[in-house]
Amino acid sequence: MKIIELTDIQFKNYAKIHSARNYMQTTEYASTMKNYSRLYLGFINENDNTLMGATLLLEREILKFKVGYVPGCFLIDYDNDNLFKDFINTLKDYLKTKKYVYLTTDNITTYKMFDKNGQVLYFDTNIIKIMDELSFRKNEKVPFRKVVLETEKTPNETYKMFNSNTKRNINLALQRAITIYRDENNNIDTMLNIDSNINKDRIKNILDNFNGNDNKAEIYFAKIDPEKYINNYRFLLKKEDENNDKLNSMMQDFSINKTASLINKKMESDKAITKYNNEIIKATNIYTKYTKGTNIGAILIVKNNREIYFMDEVYNKELSKFYSSHLIKWEIIKKYLDEGYKIFNFGSIKNMDKNNGNYLFKMGFGGKVYETIGSYDLVINKWLYGIVKLISKIKK
User: Fold this and answer.
1) pTM of the model
2) Cα–Cα distance between 74 and 76 in angstroms, integer?
3) Where are the domains of the chain?
4) What is the model's pLDDT at position 203?
5) Which pLDDT value is given to residue 382?
6) Does the domain spanning 150-224+293-370 belong to CATH 3.30.530.20?
């Protein structure tokens, strides 16, 4: 077994079919990392030249000392202990000949999984033990967790997996005449018009490089139509007024028993009328300023084979109460389920606290929490590692 250098095409062809594929282990991602040199390395069986694993390795120098970075994870079978050990040991020997001091890797491979109630569904500590045996040193103690929806269900079946709050927010956004559309030109200036504080250079870098068939970045916008918003609630108000009149007649009819159910229906109808009137007032205020409607939010996504990554998201702060992150994500999920996508990555969470709004929001889509192995350093030169690592931290 040995390490060889791969061409862009060789790596790309291997990466897109590997079970550990992710958008960071792509030639497109490598192109976004302009401050690094890049290497595409393959792990081959010399007997038959079979490619057993691969990795994108980004290289930089710290005071002329070489250090490497593997974004995402190695494209290797982490569950095959012997293969993984052979790969790491062979890689370490290879990097020694190239005068590397250490190699940092994100290791986004999942070793623990939680359901919506925080119960552990899957837990495998074996890979952690192997990492400790192979000269790896862990970089942080805080676990890295992300929320992922993985499904092979139809859009309708997937929607049923959402919690009641998520469904309610989606329906409310639809009643408020909010529609989702894709900007075919990926115009970042339209995003900037919504929020000028976004990292323009980073987003532009992603859009410029993730533009192939297998890995592609797209921008979606949420637009509100205040005239339709008004008409939607006028229609609801008219129906509820008719219902309320019937209930009112029944309340005044001495021959009808005033049951608790009837009284409750009348009270709920009164509340609905108040709510619809308030919505009409809100819609009218928006119409006064934005007669033809306006964009109220946007999101950048990256498509990697059969996975969708939800990336940067912005919203109009003036109209933040109307923007629905629930709706924009649902419309994207619905669209790409029909195109064969199965994995929707909502990104990281700080913790699984029931009071954490970000955690509750992401879990509302029926996904699970994936805890990854986390960032490690593979020490190549143990004599220089400590000092170069310290210098790296100081330079940050």
Assistant:
1) 0.91
2) 5
3) 2-140+374-395, 150-224+293-370, 227-289
4) 95
5) 92
6) no
**Residue 185, token pair as written in the block:** 């030109």
pLDDT per 10-residue tile (average), the chain, 396 residues: 94 93 95 95 90 96 93 94 96 96 92 94 91 90 92 97 96 96 93 92 95 92 97 96 87 72 87 96 96 96 94 92 92 97 96 93 97 94 91 76
- Say yes or no: do domains 2-140+374-395 and 150-224+293-370 share a fold: yes
261, 233, 120: which is closest to 172 by C-alpha? 233
Written as six digits, the tokens of 193 are 């018009």
Q: Are 73 and 109 in contact (CB under 8 A)?
A: yes
CATH number of 2-140+374-395: 3.40.630.30
Task: Supply the pLDDT for residue 142.
Answer: 82
Alpha-carbon gap, residue 175 to 279, rounded angstroms: 10
